[in-house]
Amino acid sequence: MRRRAMKSHLLEKKSAKKKRSFSKDTPLHESNVKSVKKLLGMR
Q: Which residue blocks in 1-43 are alpha helix, DSSP H?
């Protein structure tokens, strides 16, 4: 899972629908799995 962009500031301007979607998990793209595991020390 990864963090979402534009989630951390100016939340009063964003719609309730968009703010609810921020709380859902976002899957990591297959092309990034190898590099993220390396960064996390899982390899």
A: 16-22, 33-39
